[in-house]
């Protein structure tokens, strides 16, 4: 009986300690940075990790798909996500910010676009591009063996409403979802060398724009209503009869605990800010110049000391050097 009470007391002391522990010694608990499966997101995560480490924090990386990351953030398994793209993630992000399960940690300067994209030579074969109507009329050109007469749109492992859009705009296309994002570039290269028509999922900022000329398909202009109101747009019974946002935001997300327990790192995260050129160049250093993620991050950190140091609040630098003095 006694030992049971003692055990009970002991376990409540332990759980009480584990509850307050992050608050009193957060630098012992690693900050878990969520990494997704495209280059710039991983490089920016590595850069952010190095900035936090310079502030005395421990850092871990948690690879996650976009769809799994929300659960990881909600349960605190991951703490932050450095590239939240409007076109792919606004729905979950907005919902979770609204219900208080994550915190909006601010917006990068970069504007983003994610949509159907084709290399320039396709315009000669399909006059009228970049209008989606031309693409619809040219569907035949994009057939592939096994596609049963339908044009093929190559996409990656990110959830997008492309099938809904194909239905709503009555296009004779199908989505080929490649399990690795990099396989999109393999398909692009294969077609490019033969000047074969191809339409792929692409985004900006990305290295592709520095290497290939091409253009996004212009679908009907995106509005919020297009995603919710069937009456909106050309198709009166189906949603998604529009493109993705053309000038989307790029945000940072954090857990509520991160904001509370890592105040200096949270303030720094809010200040971390990349523009289109920086993001496109960083992804080109990996995907074109073949550095690995860590090398690209290290190089950027070495070349941009004054910039990233300006993101760390002054009082946090002082606190940190004080700690180092001991
Ligand atoms: C989220 N992504 C940049 C792959 O479109």
Could you give a short description of this structure?
The chain is built from 15 helices and ten strands. Helices cover 46% and strands 17% of the residues.
Task: Describe the 3D structure.
With 326 residues, this protein is an alpha/beta fold. 46% of the residues lie in helices and 17% in strands. It has helices spanning 2-24, 39-54, 66-74, 86-98, 122-125, 132-137, 162-168, 183-194, 208-211, 256-261, 263-271, 276-287, 293-303, 305-310, 314-325; strands at 31-35, 59-63, 80-85, 102-107, 113-119, 151-155, 173-177, 199-204, 214-216, 250-255. Helix 2 crosses helix 13 (293-303) and helix 12 packs across helix 13 (293-303). The structure holds trimethylamine oxide (TMO). Trimethylamine oxide (TMO) binds next to loops.
């Amino acid at each position: 009986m006694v030992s049971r009470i003692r055990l009970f007391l002991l376990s409540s002391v332990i759980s009480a300690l584990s509850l307050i522990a992050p608050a009193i010694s957060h630098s012992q608990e690693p900050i878990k940075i969520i990494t997704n499966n495209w280059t710039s997101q991983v490089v920016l995560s590595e850069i952010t990790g190095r900035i936090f480490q310079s502030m005395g924090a421990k850092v871990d990386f948690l690879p996650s798909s976009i769809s799994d990351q929300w659960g990881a953030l909600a349960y605190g398994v991951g703490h932050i996500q450095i590239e939240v793209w409007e076109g792919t993630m606004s729905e979950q992000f907005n919902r979770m910010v609204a219900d208080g399960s994550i915190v909006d940690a601010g917006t990068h300067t970069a504007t983003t676009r994610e949509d159907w994209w084709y290399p320039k030579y396709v315009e000669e074969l399909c006059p009228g591009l970049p209008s989606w109507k031309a693409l619809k009329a040219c569907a035949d050109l994009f057939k592939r063996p096994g596609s049963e007469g339908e044009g093929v749109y190559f996409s990656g492992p990110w959830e997008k409403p492309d099938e809904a859009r194909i239905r709503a705009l009555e296009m004779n296309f199908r989505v080929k979802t490649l399990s690795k994002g990099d396989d999109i570039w393999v398909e692009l290269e294969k077609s490019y060398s033969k000047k074969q028509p191809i339409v792929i999922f692409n985004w900006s900022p990305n290295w592709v724009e520095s290497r290939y000329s091409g253009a996004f398909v212009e679908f009907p202009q995106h509005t919020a209503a297009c995603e919710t109101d069937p009456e909106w747009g050309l198709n009166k019974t189906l949603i998604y009869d529009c493109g993705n946002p053309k000038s989307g935001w790029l945000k940072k997300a954090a857990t509520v605990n991160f904001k509370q327990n890592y105040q200096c790192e949270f303030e720094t995260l809010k200040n971390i800010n990349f523009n289109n050129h920086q993001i496109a160049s960083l992804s080109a250093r990996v995907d074109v110049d073949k550095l690995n993620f860590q090398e690209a991050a290290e190089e950027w950190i070495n070349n941009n000391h004054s910039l990233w140091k300006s993101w760390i609040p002054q009082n946090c630098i002082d606190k940190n050097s004080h700690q180092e003095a001991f």
